[in-house]
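Re: export button greyed out
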Amino acid sequence: MAELLAVRGLRVDFATDRGPAQVLDGMNLDIETGEVVGLVGESGCGKTTLARAILGILPEGAARIRAGEVRFKGTDLLREDPGAVNDRVRGRAITFIPQDPFTSFSPVFPVETQIMDLMKWKSPRARNGGGPASILARYPRARHRADREAVLEILRAVQIPEPARALRRLPHEFSGGQRQRLMIAMALLPRPDLIIADEPTTALDVTIQAQILRLLRALVKERGVSVLFTTHDLGTAHEICDRVVVMYAGQEMEAAPTDAFFGRPAHPYTRRLLMSVPSPGGEIRDIPGEVPSLVAPPSGCRFHPRCDYATAECRDVRPALRALAGAHGVRCHHPVDAPAGADP
Amino acid sequence: MRLLALALHRLAWFAPTLLGLLVVTFVISRIIPADPVALVAGETATPVQVEALRRELGYDRPLPVQFVDYVVRLVRGDMGTSLFTRRPIVEDLRHRLPATIELTVVAMVVSVLAGIPLGVLSALWRNSLLDHALRVVTVSGLAIASFWLGIMLQLLFAMRLGWTPLNGRLQGFPPRSLTGFYLVDACLTWDWATFGTALLHLALPAATLAFPALATLVRFTRAGVLDVMQSNFVLYERAMGLPRPLIVWKYILRSALTSTVTQIGLLFGILLAGAVVTEAVFDWPGIGTYAVNSILRSDYNAVMGFTVWAGAIFIVVNLLVDVAHTLVDPRERTT
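Workaround output, generated via the alternate export path:
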């Protein structure tokens, strides 16, 4: 499969009262065409920052990209003209499903207004370019009609009942699950190559989560769209991802196809993470130690202060990528070679 | 139909609110230590003559009786007669009301049209030179007394530069009276010369009156926009690459305005109060100068008349604001 997105050595700092926090530290990530990649890690490990860095919407002023590249279809988005990226990439080739479907719609406009505003600029029928001056431009009637048809069709695909009537309603008249279906529809409408879904089911009821996940997976597989799916819930990742990347304190630790990831995790952190998932009859085991400060992060491998296998080497040097069998990569000096669960 | 229900609900409060206002004004105007009857009777009147006049005017009766009598007549549309102009107060006020409304509405329009965009820009370019400059303007707008500002404007633009007239509403003949609003009448009669003069006369008092309102609106809009900019839907729209002007001027502004609209209703009250001072400074022939003169002469009926009018206008404006609020925020209509 072909490379679609490659994040290389991305370093992002956030300004805090106590100095710059190194939220991403040499982060790497690969997504191939048509692949659903899960990005897992604890809250605060930098998942959302990575998602926002790829989208190019890091908070202005607070965040600073210090190094690295975000290569999408061969071009580095960080070095492209920002206007061109906004015009041609964001909302077109890369779309977004937000974490909270309750507040991600403007509460005062009907859903139709918001979807059609998106389509006016981001429909696959819309011409590339135009720039900000086109804000007052008319929406050509023929295209509007065709786009509206496409909207109705996709609403049926995400199982919104009575799509034409639904469009006239205000966002708060939809349930959370329906709103997230609308968000999925909007992410698919521009016919993107990549969807960034930032914890898209965290805000939903557990029963709804499964439905939405299955729907999302079916729709993207049908269309051959890649997805970067961030989650702190390993069950969710297991449910819909082809490959899982685990990150810790702004660094990637391990990346593997889903089966290998859950069956034969090689990184001590991954193993700890998997053990912390409650299972029937099993005990919950948390990870000893504390999430490190990002203002003064640990040297070398950032997990070393909490790691059972840590040596002096781990403290000094960040491990290089080590390739295991079956597209399985791990960044650890002392990878574990055993099936999941076989830990002391 | 919720809109209609809301309007009726608010209207039902109209009478009690106004009645409360009447009680307060009535009591205050009667307990101040001034005797309008003595003033009207003149310095040469004997105490017997003053008492006779007091009986004639009905001011010798107990306060509650006077009040009930006043309210009963008010319901019939009779506000009594001014002690000084000797004309019915309804006439006096009707004659002067258009001048005040014209002044207030122009000040309102100016402050809304300038204040809201300036507030948005101030929020967008936070901590820029414009933002700092506007902060100085808004703080002074709220701190500077309007009579002082009015006099300073007169000194600069009327006395030194000579760009505008010093005071008054118009020199020469007013346009043919259709509505009583000079600007509107001049437009309707196609009298552009008069329109220009009327506008020049309006410029300074309207600016004086608009300044504090503008300051309030800039601050409110700025705060509202900054607040909305943090919303998730703005993050979503940015993530989807929508054009920035669309996000700002359609989505952010619309949400920020829901609170600003309420503010406009309150502002109208501030403007009405400010009109009293501004009219006095600029000798503007509206109900504000009328109120000032009436207060100085302890002209009970005239003061009450002004209060009723101003109160009624304020209540009606707030009713309109409530309605506008439901229009701006569609959630109000359905939930």
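The longest strand of chain A covers residues 3-16. The button fix ships in the next patch.
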